Amino acid sequence: MESIPVEKNEKVTVSFTDLTQEGSGVAKVDGYTLFVPGALPEETAEVQVVKTKKGYGYGRLTRLIEKSSLRAVPPCPIYDQCGGCSIQHLSAQGQLDYKRRIVTDALERIGGFSGISVGMTIGMADPWKYRNKIQVPVAAQDGRFAFGFFKKRSHEIVNLDSCIITDPLIDKIVQTARHAAEDKGIEPYNEAKNSGVLRHIMARSGRKSGEVMVVFVTRTEDLPHRKALIKELTENYPQIKSIVQNVNKRRTNAILGNKTKTLWGRPVIYDQIGSVTFAISAQSFYQVNPRQTEVLYRKALKFADLTGEETVIDAYCGIGTISLFLAQKAKQVYGVEIVPEAVKDAQANAELNKITNAHFETGKAEEILPKWYDKGIRPDVIVVDPPRKGCEASLLKTMLAMKPQRIVYVSCNPATLARDLKLLVPGGYAIKKVQPVDMFPQTLHVETVALITRVKE
Ligand code: SAH
């Protein structure tokens, strides 16, 4: 076994060269990797080793010796404890540059491409207050009503008075709901015993519509004092259009259960992306940064370069957000999605907008596209927006067989984007555009939209 050059509790001075997805600085000690939360590339610091494993170890920052010029003071008072954000200590420009570099590195190291110009990451003028959804755990902690996010890697709740990356209106509304629930003596959930009543308070807002939904997630069918809760909320916030209760009886980390009851108002709120209206229920998947979602979809639309004559496939279509956005400019759109409820939402959203040229099917993209191919469907443009693990190789093969003029790849993981482009490009395509968009400021999530165009007949 190779020896480990550091020991637990030892203090060492190290220089940082990289940053992980979780926001830890990466340093090498004689080739041995140390991960240190809160440290940034180009910094030198004294760290105390807290844990050593065979190939790598963890350290705690004890003294910063050389600061990065990109270091920022994190404005959130619970930043060190909460697991939500990971790079508030990196300046806004530093975050954008870093995200661009992650994409370039992936294309070079994993994709084997060189000389590709990756666009500057499109950021937000105000990279705070962007989230249109907040879901806060409620729990009995030391016999008290605790409300806040979980500490990193733990089930202990850190008290939350405000979340600065969330829309201030819903941030305030969940606090009103929390205090009303606590004042009325509604019993918080006890995870260990799977007892108690209130598990989560969630709120979502429509950025353009201004509408708000409040969701009380309970373990029990009954929600005591619900009339008082409704009164408190609706009297204070005319923006609220929907108050629902979701019942989750199971002992699980999943927030929502299967049953949702409308307590007041409608079961859904509405919001618009571009000019397309979406109905959003408690359970619907909907992008959490609406402003940047529109930026991303506009890029995808631009890359798709539609004239009104094209047949388009949107694989991994979710509730049809991209499909319906593109349908306005295409002849026909085919969307495929694995989750049946999402496909129902997509169909309902098409109807809501009187869009008749979008067709949705439930299934795996890698199984449905070959069927469409056999039926003779030959798309001019294929859009994919897969989950982190990227596309199945068999799907990429079918895409190549379909010979679309353009493929627009929307990706939430630069590594799988690079891997998939490495398979697509030799099939007769050239990389034309690669554009990172910052959908999740203060975190290291990177969203990219890439355009590849057909170069062979
Ligand atoms: N384009 C949508 C959703 C993208 S998220 C939007 O922007 O809102 C990726 C989606 O792919 C999820 O909805 C997930 O349920 C779906 N999915 C995952 N694996 C799939 C597969 N093999 N085939 C089709 N859809 C899949």
Summarize it.
The protein has 457 residues and is of the alpha/beta class. Helix content is 24%, strand content 31%. A seven-stranded mixed beta sheet has the order 8-7-6-9-10-11-12, with helices on one face. A seven-stranded mixed beta sheet has the order 17-16-15-18-19-21-20, with helices on both faces. A five-stranded mixed barrel has the order 1-2-3-5-4.
What does this entry look like structurally?
Helix content is 24%, strand content 31%. The protein has 3 domains: 11-66, Beta Barrel (OB fold (Dihydrolipoamide Acetyltransferase, E2P)), CATH 2.40.50.140; 104-124 and 289-454, Vaccinia Virus protein VP39 (Rossmann fold, 3-Layer(aba) Sandwich), CATH 3.40.50; 133-273, Beta Barrel (OB fold (Dihydrolipoamide Acetyltransferase, E2P)). Helix 7 (365-374) runs parallel beside helix 8. Strands 8-7-6-9-10-11-12 form a 7-stranded mixed sheet, covered by helices on one side. The protein is an alpha/beta fold and 457 residues long. The model has no long low-confidence stretch (mean pLDDT 95). 42% of the residues are buried. It is built from 9 helices and 21 strands. It has helices at residues 92-109, 168-183, 226-236, 290-304, 321-327, 340-352, 365-374, 393-402, 414-424; strands spanning 11-19, 24-29, 32-37, 44-52, 56-66, 133-141, 144-150, 157-159, 198-205, 212-218, 240-247, 259-265, 269-273, 276-280, 311-315, 332-337, 358-362, 381-384, 406-411, 429-437, 447-454. It starts with 10 loop residues before the first strand and ends with a strand. The longest helix is centred in the first third of the chain and has 18 residues, at 92-109. The protein binds S-adenosyl-L-homocysteine.
